[in-house]
Specification:
With 505 residues, this protein is α/β, with parallel strands linked by helices. It folds into three domains: 3-86, Up-down Bundle (Four Helix Bundle (Hemerythrin (Met), subunit A)); 101-295, Rossmann fold; 303-458, Signal recognition particle, SRP54 subunit, M-domain (434 Repressor (Amino-terminal Domain), Orthogonal Bundle), CATH 1.10.260. It contains 23 helices and seven strands.
Length: 505
Amino acid sequence: MFQSLSDRLSGIFEKLTKRGALTESDVSEAMREVRRALLEADVALEVVRDFIEKVKEKAVGQEVVKSVTPGQMVIKIVHDELVRMLGSDSQPIDVAAPPPVPILMVGLQGSGKTTTTAKIAYRLKNRDKKRVLMASLDTRRPAAQEQLRVLGEQIDVPTLPIIAGQTPLQIARRALDAARLGGYDVVLLDTAGRTTVDEALMLEVAEVKAATNPHEVLLVADSLTGQDAVNTAKAFDNRVGITGIVLTRIDGDGRGGAALSMRAVTGKPIKLLGTGEKWDALEDFHPERIANRILGMGDIVSLVEKAAQTIDAEKAQKIAQKMKKGEFDLEDLAEQIKQMQKIGGMSGVLAMLPGIGKLRNQIAEANLDDKILKRQHAIILSMTPQERRNPKIIDGKRKRRIAAGSGTKVEEVNRLLKMHRQMADMMKAMGKNKGLFARMFGGGGMPQPTPEMVEQLQRGELPKGLPGLPSGGLPRLPGLGGGLPGLGGSGPKLPGLPGFPGKKK
């Protein structure tokens, strides 16, 4: 997400942080580069101008010149202005109204409107425990109504029965009547799209809106279209009046022009981000967290929230109890791998860690893809329950059988067993140090890293002031080597992930 923009800005600010003191010309030069980076990211010109003016106004003042770390102060100012530009606070979908709450989905053809409708329905049903009815008003695109019906079956959300020959207006009224009679909480109305904004489209949407009086009018826009998405949002807002925006395919957007311009140009909040093809690949839009990701500070809070939603609390509790006793077998490791895959795999987790931007190329070279996790899981599944609980009994003959059963090589089985031994040693050490265990697994959420912490990470140092850590930093635990194998350079070391092979020659 916003990879190219993030890389550009990180490079600019790295130069600033290396200087002890900053002059006005240093700040002006950095702002010129930031301006160029934002324009190349397809951010609207008027938004860039306003942004640069406000940053310069604050950055050339006495507070930066006299600051202990002027470079970090500039980054903080840029961060705060990014948050302001993105909308300052998050605004989720509002369903606080007398049921059934009508939500109108609008947008151009190909923006992912129908799929997003199903994702929102899935989210409301599973997370908010709402009874949802979906209805397709698209009578123009072949099989559009059938598509929504199939999606509804996949996510177990009812759809309005299809009656041939009805107009969008008739379908919308029938959907509201059905929702009232059926006792539904929310009714999602998926309107037809066009390849471009035209009068016929606007008239149809306006008629449906007047007839249904929706509580939310959500525009679904493809983030990869950049400024064209912003223009589409302006057109829909002027004619129909939208209440929020859902940006799709944000995971493939390296520039971020649409996301950064949308709020400033339209004045309408971005409510959701489509981050993938899975049903749960829909995130709330948090301006501060997005600003953190753009500036390479990671997004620890989103990672923790995602983990909390996907991790089985009961299983996690059992593993925690075993860890307290210093026990950790291969069944526990298999469970950890499963949870890692649910969160988003290695790539998903690493993308949200602070200071990881500089290591992106090295990580790619180290071949740390999610196929490794799948292979490791397959190896464990090829073992007998006895072997999983007591790996010491696995001899050469058993290794060959496990490798053949999982479609891997004996070397990979050996690597997995070595990784497990290292992790088990670490658990034993933590089990003996009750105080450390309590600090690491005690209550309280993890705060967002400060710019100072990020700078320390980028230098390869452990940030000071992280809660749960002893004052002298992390103790040396057995089995934790220098970092990820295959990652050279002077970047930060990431302990606790042994066993991953480097890139094959």
